[in-house]
């Protein structure tokens, strides 16, 4: 038998190697278009980032090693340009010499893989717009990055197009080389293969490391500016100047050879194969990224370009070529990615896919630690499990976290492959010792929660269905008062779990109750108590406020901007140490207390901090080490409410480290307590713009422009209907829920669409006022807004109200900042006048 394999790397090299192990006497030839036949494709970003320093370690096999060990004839830099199925020949072009020849075959294996998507955009052929698919690509990108790093005049900046796994790995490695990185993603989330609420923690983590995200937008063009920099124009209207662009917008199967040879393609556009990886031709097999396979959970054909399935498909193809009856059943799409210290992955179907396929499902969310919380080095993970409401069969699972994510994902992948149910997860006996797990492993916990839902012991409500699922119901928050004060669902009542039994005595048993807590455990206890006391409509929020806040992307109202890159604090301190910046005005006492809160889940870190602060004096510092990533949202709000100062907040392994100073600091060399009010007041004006009426907003901007002209600092905080003054008239289309779309249509789309508060007269009065303004050369409202921005007036959009009204960043004018109540109150505390419009 003479076997010709088209393509090397994962599938092609595996077909050839397995065939040799089964047939010692076969003649095997492999044609590989690139210069390397077998390399670690998934390791390429890490050589660019110099994590893998030795390039040769990525070369798994060479033509010489395959010839020596397996007697395989490997011909690199040789492209197969045509297949003749009747004559059993392939046409080959030597890419080094240009020579063409034909090669005969008895059996043929097509493993040409896939190619990166390069959309036909203006400037896409710019040499600084690169893709990463093979060793040659890696070498070119690394040489470019090396040159940027070495050139003192080069902009240390890169743009990554696409926030899939390769895009995120490239972002991390470019960041590690010292480049500022911005990611552009067409979807409204990173990692589109995961459901949105699972991607939010990693989005926040990326921003915490200084990586900027541009979501729900795409690259529109690439141009070179006069200074030689590459400019990326986005569909949102923004322009990003950079030195390097990495295109990571997905891949498409290389099917042209198959099409030209008359082989049948499947409905997804890949080569159609049977369970033996045999194509429509009886002597041609195919494997790897180019084929369509059965989806394990959804059924039907799918193209799932992953290295693991490619190798298994190749093994089946080789065994079929050698006469064995081995079958390839399906691919479930198990994948995982690490970005800095955070890990995310999934297996099976996502919620989006199940909905699209019309498959009914239920959900369980849990937030356990990677191992026993009392043993150092763990952090909380987020696990989502999707399962059948009929029999509990597991349909999919997704996990984000730090330690132990991979092994839990592997258990869930195994369970799906074996057709297990959530009840089976309860019964699994998994390895336990404090450094590795808890007595109730996170996988067991998923099984417990899901089984409770199936049995009716737990009646769920979900974040995705809010607020419709809470209409007419009492929302009861059973967390403690301090947690409730930091953040709570609008309209919720705080009834701590310990007081619930007394509080419910006079409640109406037939009024719907919607319970929630931080992660679901306390609300589950409350649910069981109320149900057994005769309440007829009680549901608990699955995953608690942690899942709710991830899905709705909300932060505590008092956090000024939870997504400011935390690394900037460290950079600022370095500048202070070097004398490049003056020391902070408030000087501490010099007392520093190290507080280890690792392993504590919310509200543990806040409670430990509260207790420690009570022991300290004003001006003392607490350096808190926290593994709960949510602490970066809660710490500023807690500190603001208690009069403390967050001096430093930055990533530390799987969590963060925060330096918090107790309020009432002591002046350096003095002993007298600083008067914070007297120290803060400045020639500064702060506005709250609540109204969406044309005349009121106009008056506000007239006053603001006047104040800034007199030398005052001015900040304007826009909330509720006032946000309409900041809306773009030419806002790009944004995919959002129907309720948000309805809100948008009912509200004025920008200052030109606003109406008078009095005498509007169906728009006639507004038109009259605008004409009088033009006649008297009074600037229009859009002109006043622009002049205010040009003069340095800060325009701040309330993020909570944006969420409530369904407004997105892309729909507001450029230059707007985003913050919450704490940002405004901070400005107000330093102002000598505050105005409410």
SSE arrangement:
Layout: E1 2-6, H1 9-22, E2 27-32, E3 38-39, H2 44-48, E4 59-61, H3 63-70, E5 73-76, E6 78-84, E7 89-94, E8 100-104, E9 107-110, E10 114-116, E11 129-131, H4 135-150, E12 157-161, H5 165-176, E13 180-185, H6 196-208, E14 212-215, E15 219-224, E16 230-234, E17 239-242, E18 244-247, E19 251-253, H7 256-260, E20 271-272, E21 284-286, E22 291-294, E23 301-302, H8 307-321, E24 335-339, E25 342-348, H9 351-357, E26 362-366, E27 382-387, E28 394-401, H10 405-417, H11 422-427, H12 442-455, E29 460-461, E30 474-477, H13 481-486, E31 493-494, H14 497-503, E32 513-516, H15 521-532, E33 538-541, H16 544-551, H17 567-577, E34 592-596, H18 604-614, E35 621-626, H19 631-642, E36 645-652, E37 655-661, H20 676-680, E38 684-689, H21 694-709, E39 713-718, H22 738-746, H23 764-775, H24 781-790, E40 794-798, H25 799-805, E41 817-819, H26 821-829, E42 833-836
Parallel strand pairs: 1-2, 1-9, 2-5, 9-21, 11-18, 12-13, 12-18, 13-14, 20-22, 29-33, 30-31, 30-32, 32-33, 34-35, 38-39, 38-42, 39-40, 40-41
Antiparallel strand pairs: 3-4, 6-7, 7-8, 10-19, 15-16, 16-17, 22-23, 24-25, 25-28, 26-27, 27-28, 35-37, 36-37
Helix pairs in contact: 1-8, 6-16, 21-24
Please give a quick description of this structure:
By secondary structure, this protein is an alpha/beta fold. It has 26 helices and 42 strands.
Tell me the number of helical segments per DSSP (H or I, 4 or more residues long). Answer: 26
Strand order of the largest sheet: 5-2-1-9-21
Q: Main β-sheet: number of strands, strand sense, barrel status?
A: 5 strands, parallel
| Terminus-to-terminus distance | 85 Å
Shape: globular
Q: Into which percent range does the helicity of residues fall?
A: 25-40%
Low-confidence stretches: 555-576, 578-586, 665-681
The radius of gyration is 30 Å
How many distinct beta strands?
42
Helix/strand-derived category reads: alpha/beta
Strand content: 15-25%
Mean pLDDT: 87
